[in-house]
Amino acid sequence: LRRLEQQIVETSDAVKAVGAQINHVQSLQRDQNEKLDKQGDWLVQSLRADLRARLTRAQELDIRDERKQAIALLEEMYHTARAHGFKEEQLEAVLNLGLTTSDDSKAVDSKFRDAKKLIREVKSAWHQIHYYRLKAKVLLHRKHPSQAERALRKAIALSQSADESVMQAGLYARASYIHLLSDAKRLDEADMQVSSVRTVVEETGIGYPVALIAELLEACIHLAASRSDINQVNAFVAAALRHGSGREAALLIDRK
């Protein structure tokens, strides 16, 4: 009986030792999984940051009239985002492709259809604002200016936020709205919109993206040219020179 009791004790000790080893192995596995998760999170964040950097670069290329390079970079961004299942970055690439492609109405319509599918899964105000900008562009191509105006008003309304990126998106929408009003010869209304962005275009060192400044300056020059106000045109060209290069200023004038 004592021998049996001794065997039971030894067996129990062995079971405890095996259990301890299993716990140790499981602990090591958990630590390894946590490290892998952290590495995975870092890689995802790094890839997303790289995609956003490509977007910024594409926007800068576009304002310098290097449109082919901008579109190639946006297409690359789109395919990379799609391969990794990044819906927001896919949508950003599609929206910018639609907004960058100016002359081909069929290509713009195609990008808008893609954006319409993707926007269902992305609810942020930033993406909604640029979606309405693209929608307005499509509606203008289709000769529906009143519907385009409603889309831009929605975009501007969505930008009333404390979030800086959302506010900047709203400034892009205001630039589009200034163009629409100037084309419609509703110049007093366009002046009211310009008054909302004048500080941004006239002061340097605020830290706004170059692409945004260029969009706003182009809209302001469009209004000044619509008024045949050479003094205002010169003032906005001078602002362009303060913000960038003479080439950028020349491009702004050439477009109008």
List keywords for this structure.
256 residues; mainly alpha; 84% helix
Unreliable segments (pLDDT under 50, ≥5 consecutive)? none
Largest sheet: none
> How many individual β-strands?
0
Overall 3D geometry? Answer: elongated
Give me the Rg, rounded.
28 Å
Strand content: under 5%
Determine the fraction of residues in helical runs and give it as a percent range: over 70%
Rounded mean pLDDT score: 83
How many angstroms separate the termini?
Answer: 105 Å
Q: Return the string of H and E elements.
A: HHHHHHHHHHH
Number of helical stretches of at least 4 residues: 11
Structural class: mainly alpha
Fold blueprint:
Blueprint: H1 2-63, H2 67-84, H3 87-100, H4 105-118, H5 125-141, H6 145-158, H7 164-183, H8 187-202, H9 210-226, H10 230-243, H11 246-255
Q: How does this model look, in words?
A:
The chain has 256 residues and is mainly α. The protein has helices at 2-63, 67-84, 87-100, 105-118, 125-141, 145-158, 164-183, 187-202, 210-226, 230-243, 246-255. The mean pLDDT is 83.
Summed up:
The protein has 256 residues and is an all-alpha fold. The chain is 84% helix and 0% strand.
